[in-house]
């Protein structure tokens, strides 16, 4: 009986593995099709200051698969990286978002003081063509580089520091600013903050979530804000979900914010509405 059970367990296990790799192959196929058939869309999530005014937006990639509907970037970006599609996808994100922001700017909707923040994964950052793709997007859209911010993670700094540094400087020379995304979740040395051409730290949402109740999270957020201020770096809190978060962070010396409290990431049309309703409240 035990033998039988053992065999069954084994059979279940294999079946499970099989369906996992089938799903994976299916996703790889779908990603290739998505790229060819332009199934990627970029969403925008506003970033706001103490007064709630818009100071920019983060570009967040959305993919609506034929069969599965919306798939999280956390799920498909690692796959796109493994099969090498991330570079073409990143190029599309750069083109679509800069073109959209350039259009909004011409319409008077997007202010020159606002930044569009674009995520670049460590693998994208290391790729030889990244700078070309950035320049291409700026040229095609006509968007000034000063309006563009690139979000990198601490991991970028850990692999090949010299070439990462060189690339960061090239981007800065173009006029682009650099943010460190998910700050506090990686293993980078504090020394980097002093030496590298970084403009802003984005405090990871995992520290913000329980900020009110967890004294350790509170201490970490307070320390990061103080350190950023002391090093003359900008600082933004991610994952600001409630008025309580917003008020607490203000008291702690933070001055820029992003999160569901202000808005979820939304499609271009919804973002336009957000901006317009925002201007109206500002006038009143
Ligand atoms: P991220 O860059 O840290 O982006 C912030 C994530 O937090 C987004 O998830 C956003 O929807 C979510 N978020 C924003 N406000 C809140 C909040 O108040 N509460 C909570 N719980 N979540 C909030 P999303 O859109 O699913 O993206 C996940 C990750 O996928 C991003 O994390 C980024 O690492 C990656 N990603 C998204 N778009 C791109 C892209 O175009 N290129 C690359 N390389 N990575 C991307
Ligand atoms: Mg980001
Ligand atoms: Mg983040
Ligand atoms: Mg994240």
TrEMBL record:
Question: Which positions fall inside the EAL domain?
Answer: 24-279
**Source superkingdom:** Bacteria
Q: What is this protein called?
A: EAL domain-containing protein
Q: Which organism is it from?
A: Marinomonas ostreistagni
